[in-house]
Structure formats: C-alpha cells, structure tokens
Amino acid sequence: MAETIIIRRMEPSDEKYVLAIDQKIVGEARAASWQQRVFRYLERYYPPVSHIAKANGVVVGFIIGDIRGWEYGMASGAWIDIMGVDTEYQGQGVGRRLVEAFVAQCRHQGIKGIQSFMRDDDTRIQRFLESVGFSRGTLVEYSLEV
Ligand SMILES: CC(C)(COP(=O)(O)OP(=O)(O)OC[C@H]1O[C@@H](n2cnc3c(N)ncnc32)[C@H](O)[C@@H]1OP(=O)(O)O)[C@@H](O)C(=O)NCCC(=O)NCCS
Questions:
Q1: Residue owning the nearest CA to atom 18 of ligand 1
Q2: Disulfide check for 59: which of 17, 116, 138, 144 has CB 3.0–4.6 Å away?
C-alpha cells in the first residue's frame, strides 16, 4: 500500500534531515558547503516557499527556494535553489508535490514567475521540471576561465 506523504513548510529543525538526504543523493562534496551557504542563510530568513515531504514521520524530500526582488532586469519572482528526494522515494510523485506546494505558496503571495538554474547537461532535472509544467527560460550565463 502506498505510504501517506505529508508536505509542510520547512523548519530549522528539519536541517539535519535535509542534509542527510542531500548527502545520500549528491555526496559529501556539496554537503560540506551547506552549513556555510544554505543554513546560515535559512537561519536568518526562512522563506515560506521552502517545504519538506514526510512519509511515516520521516523526512523524505525537500525543496528550498526564496522570493527575490528585481533581478536580471526581470520582475520579482521566486527561485527554486535546491531540491531532493530520498532515492527510495524517487519516482513516486514526491518531487511533484513539493513543487506544487512551492507554486501554491507563490500564488498565495502574488508571485507571477518561478525560475531555477541548472547545468545545461543536467537533463534529469530538466525533464522533471518539464513534467511539472516548467519550460526553458531566456537567462544566459557568461563565463571567463582564469
Ligand atoms: C529530480 C527529483 C527532485 C524528482 O523528484 P521525484 O519525486 O523523483 O519526481 P516525481 O516522482 O514527483 O516525478 C514527477 C514527474 O517528473 C518525471 N521525472 C522525475 N524524474 C525524472 C527523470 N530523472 N527523468 C525524466 N523524468 C523524470 C516523472 O516521470 C514525473 O512525470 P509524470 O508525472 O508525467 O509521470 C528527484 O528524483 C531527485 O532528488 N533526484 C536527485 C537529485 C537532483 O537531481 N536534485 C535536483 C537538483 S538540485
């Protein structure tokens, strides 16, 4: 029988569970930057768009993002920064439900657009986002090797 998945807003006490999922799906390298980059920021400002998914009381997925003002000359909108679903729960609609919660909160706050950046060759996340209604945007990255 399918387990009941509960989606709720992320809270500071969820950080350790989020980190454990990220370590499992991406590895230690990114996890090392979390304390410095993600949590320090979250502890100052908990964006209401960030959510976690729980199955049988255990955190099995997360979506972290925020709402930013004018950026890149575009109207204010929300950004999905990072998301992940525990390997054992992937492909069961958890990611979709997390995005839906993110979108619902954006609608509630009157946000008109949601963006997310990823590598051009990361077709996995691109196909996932297309499945949940996103399409390719128009932002372009310029870089210089030094
Ligand atoms: C990408 C990820 C967030 C998707 O979450 P999920 O719970 O597995 O996805 P869902 O089961 O909700 O799938 C929703 C839709 O996306 C599609 N989808 C999901 N992963 C896909 C993939 N790798 N390739 C193609 N389509 C995919 C599903 O087929 C489904 O479409 P459908 O409803 O039309 O059948 C999750 O698999 C994950 O954490 N992956 C590893 C880490 C990662 O890439 N994180 C994102 C970068 S920060």
A1: 128
A2: 17
